[in-house]
Amino acid sequence: MKNKFIVLEGIDGCGKGTQIKKIHNFIFELDKRNEIFTTREPTYGKYGKQVREILKKDKCPLKNSELLLKLYTKDRKEHLEIIEKIMSRKTGDINHFVLCDRYYHSTYAYQQTQGISFDRIHEMQKNFLKPDITFIIDLNPELAYSRMSDGRTSKEKFEKLEFMEELRKNFLKLKNKLNENIHIIDGSKSKSEVFEQIIKVLKENSIFL
Ligand code: TYD
After folding, report:
1. What does DSSP assign to residue 3?
2. Which of 14, 27, 44, 131 could bond 10 through an S-S bridge, CB–CB 3.0 to 4.6 Å?
3. Would the CB of 158 count as within 6 Å of ligand 1?
4. Considering only the top CATH level, what class is 3-204?
5. 61 cis-preceded (ω within 30 degrees of 0)
6. What are the average pLDDT values for consecutive 10-residue runs of the chain, which has 209 residues?
7. Ligand 1 midpoint to CA 193 (Å)
């Protein structure tokens, strides 16, 4: 069994967080030899912390695009030191999984929506480790927006409806633009239906073999 790198992506409020926990639990139960490193970007490392500071302060979604592009990329470089170590482990019977909440697809989608060109982003991301499989949980931004509003009054930098509409389109375009294993999942379905859809695709792609 080869080690597997799985990524979940989508606009804010698409339900990634719930699904990643479900996938984690599923893999953990599936085989006692499975070891899973479940992680996220931005991280809480030094660059990830700088990103979060900017996200807290900025109100305009288009501001600080260049700075954010650099910080997300540096954060990823640091994160990959851990991910690559796990992915290169050969420990007999043990199956290693890296499960990541957001990866470079978020940079392509968000920073493009901020106005940076695909080619420029691609130049900075193209040499990073490719996931074995990526799920983009697709959801109508209005629905995502209303889900995010539950219990919250203030909105984060990127949580503006117009920005999210464009963001969704940029996420969907990635399937054809990047030459890799990307699957679009309908996030408007119930949590268990979305999960079943993801597990079905993981099985079809021999991720558990
Ligand atoms: P998010 O997943 O919301 O982090 P958390 O839930 O831990 O606060 O990520 C923060 C924001 O950063 C989110 O709006 C998406 C955005 N983002 C980018 O713009 N580019 C990137 O490369 C990444 C990884 C995230």
Report:
1. -
2. 14
3. yes
4. alpha beta
5. no
6. 94 96 98 96 98 96 98 98 96 93 98 98 98 98 85 79 97 97 98 98 95
7. 25
